[in-house]
Write the structure tokens for this entry.
Amino acid sequence: MTKEDLQRFCSTDETRPNLLEPWSQGDFSYAADGYTIIRVPRLSNVEENPVAPNAAELFERFTDNMREFFQIPELQPREIRTCPVCAGKLIFEGDPCETCIDEETPGKIERIVRVQIREALFNRNYLERLKSLPGVLIGPKGPEDPAWIKFDGGDGLIMPIRKD
Ligand SMILES: [Zn+2]
């Protein structure tokens, strides 16, 4: 794993400036976006970041040897459709459409596909990104606790989607 591999798991949300780049703490280097965090043995070219979350404490709290690990199942395609508010025209009642204008595909909206693994539901798109990690396995704990991720060369945590 390289710094570039970690970068794919960083936030791209400018309102989370502490998560935009990987950081090192103790024996590990980390990348997180608020939903997923992964860690690998410390990389010499990843700097420490005093405003980054206390990742070591997170892993301490949420990893244990009491759980089973599973392969991430085959994923259904993303559900992206034309914005029902502006019909894909980007304008609604004379103003820019607030429903779809900020999406990566303007004029369209995405319904997040939920994937059930044991008792927990996960965002399909986050699972797809995890699937790129070599030998990845997921160990869910319950419907609301972070699942533990293991892969060749590192591990991580992913938050489930709350049932509602
Ligand atoms: Zn729209």
